[in-house]
Fold each of these.
Amino acid sequence: MKSKFWLALEIIAGIILIALLVQFAKRKIEDKNYLIQQEMLKGSIQSVETTSIKDVSAPVANRLEERNNMAVQEVEKLRNEHPSIIAVIQIPGTNVLYPIVQGEDNQFYLDHDKDGHYHPFGEVFLDSRNTPDFKDTNSIIYGHNIRSAKTIFNELLQYEDQEYFDAHRAIYLYTQNGFREYKVVSVFKANPDESYREIDFDEGGYKNFVEKYFDLSTVKGDLPVSESMITLSTCFNNEYRMVIQAVEITSQD
């Protein structure tokens, strides 16, 4: 006959196991619901890329104005439901189509969703030092690399492949002020304390900054002349970040 001690130990172990299983199941359900909500949100975003301009024969300036208006309308529609959203990021040809939020610091949205609820996936968010109109010289955008669900910025790791880089160089931002288009120019791994997160530059500093990381890039392409850029940053592992830099380009419409 088992002693009372061992019986009590088995009961405690059983209770702990059940609690862990319940917690695991709860986490899986929360993750599934989160992904469902993200997909629903994606479905509500009308892509400027796929939405046809009403009059393709109109002057370029008119078409650009229409595209800007469409972007503003999409963001405003989302902000009516989720006021924390300041923009939307899209990488054509990928699954990256997410709202962007911004907090008072760079910690809150690491583990909270756009409605302020705790979730370990967090949100895609703009650096708290940046202005929400994306008019800074370098706007920094963060997002988790969710390997288990292959979501958020997980797909950015594929940019190390030259063919993938060549096929996915366009990045679109839908902002409260209009549509912005960027071209990926640099892909590299960096220590979190590396200076790639600078947002202010002295005269000539921006050009040197862009060229520095262009030279460090593990994949190669052209480097258009630009006056501003965005930097996407996600975890590669515990020590390094995967960094994607894209310069703002003049529309070719």
Amino acid sequence: MTRTNWMTPEWEGVPFLMRREVEDFEVHEVPAYPPSGEGGHIFVTIQKRGLDTSRAKRVLAKHFGLDPRSIGHAGQKDARAVTRQCLSLEGVSVEDALAFEHPRVQILDAALHGHKLRRGHLAGNRFRILLRDLPKGSMPAVQGVLDLLQQRGVPNRYMAQRFGVRGDNADLGRMLVLGDTSGAREAARAQGHSHWPNALRKLMVGAWQAQIFNRVLDARMAWEGGLETVCPGDLAIRHESGGIFLVQDEADAQRARALEISASGPLPGCRARLPEGPVLELEQRLLSEDGVCQEDLTRKGPLLSRLGARRPLRALLTEISLEETTEGLLLAFRLPAGSFATAVIDEIGKGRGAGWGLSATASQGEVQ
């Protein structure tokens, strides 16, 4: 199903090719804080090419004789890029870390710190993306889209990376939420997963949560004011602090237009705070259409016992630049942690771009 709801409808989609080469897509993490300079761990900045974060951790673990699970990371980076990110190693000296050599993983710097790096300890990500094979004269349209997204915010949808290579992780996650563990396991085996670790099950449940979030986001884009406003009953998120509050004053709509706050959508779970009024009715209706009710989310067990969060429906786009090169258009911008660069690129192409990660995720029930 083709999406028709865009944040920048004034501009037609521009065809392009993304990620022809791994080097066409660069990601640099923005740390939440610097290493302290003392302690039993070291923070290392790595640059990796053609490896996801899990595989890079295994490379380092094998070299230093560590359990991969002991290596900390703030964000997960995929393999189809050149990425810089921070990892933490315990019991490794700065000198040994800087002496490490590998053809696809480099350690650029290292410093002592007092604790392991945890998921989410990340301020954001900077991206440099080369778009190739654009029609001549495309730069004004691409610049126009970027300018509008900076003024309005980026739809904070989960993109194809979140739903697995076959795109059916959300379906398996839904089965787990409904308690059909055996059915989900059989489906996973059919995918080629011979093992059934807890981490894989959590990944699938997370994909289902992402699918519900995307459906709420698309529905809210069709409401009056779209994602640029909030309404009474919303749980709004302050972009600067991450704080959540219940919208009761219509004056908060002005704060949303100023990009100070945004409405949030659900990552459903037993611990998630619920909105009120029409917003709650929408979210519960979309859950019901997926065959899930609130009681299903209270089922005890390791997968569901801690689930539940809110995610802003918009992400703030900053530090944008655009340069015309002999190979195409080179974009640079920054997004908050957890937001997808391909959501920005998707607005440029509006379905006319080509490249891994651009398929319109399972926002309307389609499987990508």
Amino acid sequence: MENIGGKIKALRIQKEMRQKEFAKGICSNVTLSNIENNKQNPSMEILIKICDKLEIALQDLYGEPIDTEEVKNLTANFDQLQWLCGNHRHREAYILLMEEIAEEQLITICFQKKYYYFLGLTQVIHLEKPDEAIFNFSRTLNTENEAKTETIEDVLALNGLGIAYTFKGEMDKAEFYFMKSLEHMKKFETEVLSEQKEMGKIAFNTAKHYSDKKEYKKAVDLCLEALSILINLDSRYHLSALYFLLGYNLFELGDRVNSSKNYFIAKALAYVDNNQHVLDAVDEELEKHKIVFDALI
């Protein structure tokens, strides 16, 4: 890949724009500095904004013809994949991957990493093929950008490896990757909303891991951390599932009242988002424990 950061810096200077002035409306001054010095890989969202401000096409940065319309279509497809997976609709996500995206379309490292990650995620959750998922999560991690900087897909792939090894019953390996993803998540800095939302999902998946291990207090703490991330972003991404998981673990800790309240919130959000997976999970717990929402009013 070409030296994208250096090209951006040269073109900015050519337009006689200071870094702070140029960064306005795109990202922070620090982020732009990291991009220009190849210390940070720009997301496609930021890259498009940079090109707009420089009044150039993407192909001018990459030094080869790039179909801008194809880039927009790929971006829209990956946004849709994120939404589908966030609502536990992994079957639909897998079909979208198979029918709408071909590997030869993946014209940037950014798109390649997204593709391998979502392929791995749908393979482990929809197809229940953890070995194939492990292969594609590893491809995500092994596909490096020019600056060898970490992307959100790298952190998600580590988390995905935790899910895959859980499916295989290899809990020590699962624990290793869940903790590693959490460690990397806490260090990862981004101003891109779609990437920030994924941090909530990483905490959620790790909380579920501890819930499965019956370490309910750890699970509650991680649920609260994930909720804090998403509420601060004003995002409903994974929110119904988080409230359900929080309710479940609070119940296991003996807090029936707050558990019921969180089940109520989870069901309301799942109804709004048409998340049948969460609706079914809540109804199962309500039936099992004879919880009636009338008691909350």
Amino acid sequence: MGRVLSSLPIGEKVGIAYSGGLDTCTAIAWMKEKGAMPYAYTADLGQYDEDNLEDIPERAKTYGAEHARLIDCRLQLVKEGFAALMCSAFHIRSAGRTYFNTTPLGRAVTGTMLVNAMREDGVNIWGDGSTYKGNDIERFYRYALMANAEV
């Protein structure tokens, strides 16, 4: 079973969900400076707000990532989305309006697909890159354990 580390593992591979934003760029640089070997994984969920997702892994390397990959998660997100639609799991009502709550599916797909990619690269330590403003750390950790119980 996985466990939560209380300190950064020096000289070991640490995988991080890397968005290319300030927080994850800083996390990569900090891990490298402290002696860890950061591996960056970026999820392609079909984001419309990114001009060129293919450039993001190279950005991670400029901040100190030993290795960086773009993981195509689009098909898995579509599969999970259809499954959720078939059981009406998306229909949320708030303030009298119905909307599709897709964020939980994106987190599940991101967490499992990135940890699967990490396992392919021999990375068993996960640093999700979130800033602990919400419950993303817990979500990513639980999904990570589903994909690799040793993470």
